[in-house]
């Protein structure tokens, strides 16, 4: 997603996010507490009625869910660049729990979010969804946060099953390359990037479609573009899924 250069875009999104939190937390708690998919539905319903830009919505989540479900070994650790209000982080937490069983202890989602206010809202939504034990939001530039997670041993070498890239386009390639440099991928890890066609991430697409940095890199990708379909027949933007085939 790359509309950050548009005047006032981030400020407007933040105002909308604050209103969304007020609305969702005013709904009957028993309908949402501990129910990740209902929390996501409530956020999406607010977005449809009142406007809330930037969500990674359900048709796209379902596309990635199918990819995650096919991975062996089962995915356990996800890092996300760009968490905003937490929709996708909640989805990854719910999916990891569904795939690994609700008593799995070694699953974790790290949502990396630049803006403290958005991180705070995401944390509230994650708590409402009952996923606070397995989904953490880390505030700051994602590149710094990932380096800290590796230094702290929370994300281990070869220990990352999916990186989800959904922040600003100018960081897509450098942050994917940081994952390579930190050696967190294993063979079969996936990098999933949103909005690679619209607004577009041409440099990222070129990089993964050619397989990565073939001259200097150690990681090689095979990449495919997936086109989610919405229930109303509309065509959301594409999702790029790149599988690490050599590491
Ligand atoms: C498209 S939104 C993410 C949407 C989110 N994945 C969801 O499904 O609701 C992009 C987010 O990336 C954050 N962001 C931008 N640059 C970042 C960076 N360098 N590190 C971490 N987060 C960043 C923005 O503050 C914004 O909240």
UniProtKB/TrEMBL annotation:
Source organism superkingdom: Eukaryota
EC number: 2.1.1.6
Keywords: Catecholamine metabolism, Methyltransferase, S-adenosyl-L-methionine, Transferase
UniProt KW RNA-binding keyword: no
Enzyme class, spelled out: transferase
Pfam families found in the cross-reference section: Methyltransf_3 (PF01596)
Assigned protein family: Belongs to the class I-like SAM-binding methyltransferase superfamily. Cation-dependent O-methyltransferase family.
Name this polypeptide is given: catechol O-methyltransferase
Source organism (scientific name): Phialemonium thermophilum
